[in-house]
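step: validate -> pass
step: tokenize input -> pass
step: predict -> running
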Amino acid sequence: MGGPEILELGKSTLEALEKGEFYDIAHVVSVRIIGQPAERIFDISGDLVEYKPFAELALREIRDVARHRRLPRGARRQRMLDTLDLAGF
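step: predict -> pass
step: emit ->
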């Protein structure tokens, strides 16, 4: 995953949360993942920058759950919060 993909994952996650009107969780994701120091959420090796596995997994899961309209809103909210906790954020 390169620089553009990293930016797109963070952006698409926040957009999905805002579209689903999960503003409080968007704030939590901004603070607990996206706003963290680079060394906490990225593996950096020379020119290669990638999300650490749990950061990437958490962002993808939260984005996908926010988009999943068939799940009840409360269930989606709890699943996203559980994802943050399980991933250590």
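step: describe -> The chain is about 70% helix and 10% strand.
step: cleanup -> pass
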